[in-house]
Design brief:
Layout lengths: L11 H20 L2 H4 L6 H12 L3 H17 L2 H35 L1 H10 L5 H17 L4 H16 L7
Helix pairs in contact: 1-3, 1-4, 3-4, 5-6, 5-8, 7-8
Length: 172
């Protein structure tokens, strides 16, 4: 007699792993800002339970409430919730990558000056050359004088506006 996957019992260890994953998911949901939490496809009772968990200061009570949230999630479809959370993580990673790309260009422009500006101009000919040169020179002067980097921040903002209009190339 052959056994099918439906006949085989799920191991106790597998059940524990699944329960732990749901508790972790409930904890992640409780840590989301309210604006993001409203974007997650959750039932009203789950949202209410998460709000109660957020308001609890006692560690034990909060842990029990999050277990209850996990139980409520188990009754519904957790895949849609997980996909939404993954979307938030992907969006955050994209913003981090953008930030790093802009910082790299700012640092390169402040270090190499007109050489790096020429490279950027080849990629983005619509760039206001005089304004960028002024920001670069001011930033270099402030750095050498040990002053606060106000011009470097302005340069960063200008580069961010360029990047939002059209993605800056990777800094080589």
């Amino acid at each position: 007699m052959s056994t099918t996957p439906q006949d085989q019992a799920v191991s106790k260890s597998q059940l524990k792993r699944e329960a732990q994953a749901l508790r972790s998911l409930a904890n992640d949901l409780a840590g989301l800002p309210p604006s993001q939490l409203l974007k997650v496809p959750l039932d009203e009772d789950v949202l209410h339970a998460i709000e109660q968990a957020r308001n609890m200061r006692s560690h034990g009570a909060r842990r029990r409430q999050l277990q209850y949230v996990a139980k409520l999630i188990r009754r519904s479809d957790a895949t849609a919730i997980i996909e939404t959370l993954e979307g938030f993580k992907t969006e955050a990673q994209g913003l981090t990558a953008q930030q790093h790309r802009i910082e790299a260009w700012r640092d390169r422009l402040l270090e190499l000056g007109d050489t790096a500006l020429g490279e950027l101009l080849q990629q983005r000919p619509e760039l206001d050359i005089q304004a960028m040169r002024q920001l670069i020179r001011n930033g270099q002067h402030q750095k050498s004088a040990g002053k606060p980097p106000a011009a470097a921040r302005s340069l960063f903002r200008a580069l961010r506006e360029l990047d939002q209009a059209e993605r800056l190339p990777s800094c080589s």
